[in-house]
Amino acid sequence: MKPILLRNFLITLLISQVCGISICQVPVSSESNRLSAGFYKDRRDALREIMPPNSVFVLFASPERTFSTDVDYVYHQNRDMLYFSGYPEPNSMMYIFKEEQRADSIENPFSEVIFTPAVDLAQAVWTGKIMGAEEAMKDLGIKLALEASKYEKFPVDLSKFKVIITDRLPSDVREGNSASLSGFISAFRKKAGIQHSPDEFSLMVSSNLIDLKNDLQLREFQEKAKAYVTAQVVNVNVDPFLIRFFNSTDSLTRALIRDSLANARINYLSFNRLTSALRQIKTPEEIAVIKKAIDITCDANREVMKAATPEMSEREIQGIHEFIYKIRGAKETGFPLIIASGNNGCTLHYMDNDAPKVGNNLILMDVGAMFCGYSADVTRTIPANGRFSPEQLAIYNIVLEAQDSAFSYCKQGMPFAKLNLPARKVIADGLKKLGIIQETEEVYIYYPHSISHQIGLDVHDKSLRSSPLTNGMIITLEPGIYIPTGSKCDKKWWGIGIRIEDDILINDNNPVNLSLSAPRKADDIEKLMKKSSPFNQFR
Questions:
Q1: Are 221 and 158 members of one domain?
Q2: Which end of the chain is less congested by CB atoms within 10 angstroms, N or C?
């Protein structure tokens, strides 16, 4: 970038920040890129409150992944490990105890312990200094931190605990020594007496199974699950315990199996329930950093609205988003960005972003910056030439009305599943009025997804399926209409894909749209698109 262009661009950004873009005060320094030590301590204390007596909660770091030969993908920590510890690095694990523990070789009592790799100054020349045990105690406020090599002889006997709560053990892990993630997993299996670790399918079945209330539901579920497994072309690796359920013939056996899963000593199901119960409600610190991620994302949307032209490629538009993210302090994106022009917008998870020119089409941008580990998720759909055609505008206004109808339902206590009902009705009525569909049931052809999910450390963040909307939740509202080329309707509608997505904070009966700074009404979008952008000087 030429110096004069760089100067003008920075001035433009500075003016935009001063003139109305809200920047909330966030409890994180740009150096650490994490929340306060007090936040993680509070999360561990909150976990202990809901853990059963005489239990231990076990966390493992995420495995490292190879990108190519000796190059790794950018490392992303297990989100639950991050949530309870703030520890960002691989080859680590953590115990959180319900009750305070004592051990002969450890001077002070402790209620948690994290095992971290040893600081290796020779390796630091190549990959940088890591956070060792000493820094984990100092910077993260963890009571006890030990080097990974001490795990095998750690003097706490897991056999004394009534319940060991852990997630499905990491798979596809690189082989390593006793101080690596594979070493932790191997040693933990022996310490906990784990003979068989269930796969993802078995955990999903078990999770659904323990929610059933009576034998009629158990029997119906048994038949459906058994039929599903039988119908699979590839063999499904079913937990031996579940095979007993599939083959059980009486109500007592079915009930005992369900209860045994719910109260298992090595309890994988409790892990997801406990973490989801906590993570679905955001603390004030989390709300602040999520709002920051949203503000950054909205700033990028606004800049693209000013910069977009029919000659741009999808990749250029992606680049503008990511440049704004980084200059505003976001380390990376919360997910692979979707920049979909024309008929590409009718593919829900389009991620190629490789159309050389967007042309006189709509541009659907499903995007989100990640700040301090938390992701935004905002979608805007704009006309590349700066003006909606009559057909585009007709569809756009139906989607906007659908979102507005659902927004009024975002209240404390509202069942999550009800959010989609008003939106689907608006879309069905609108499409029928335009002659695109004839029957209400056909709405699923052009609106095939639901309207909402939680956001947080994951862009589709953890939550309990049965929980109603609760103060402190941050959810998306994202209705859409997608009419791909070749659809059974008038050709004038073909290639129109529109989604509008905002991030909503639940606050009693007064929901807060956190992403309003990115224009969402057609008139406001067209007005902003008349303005120029420094990015246009590069073409």
A1: no
A2: C
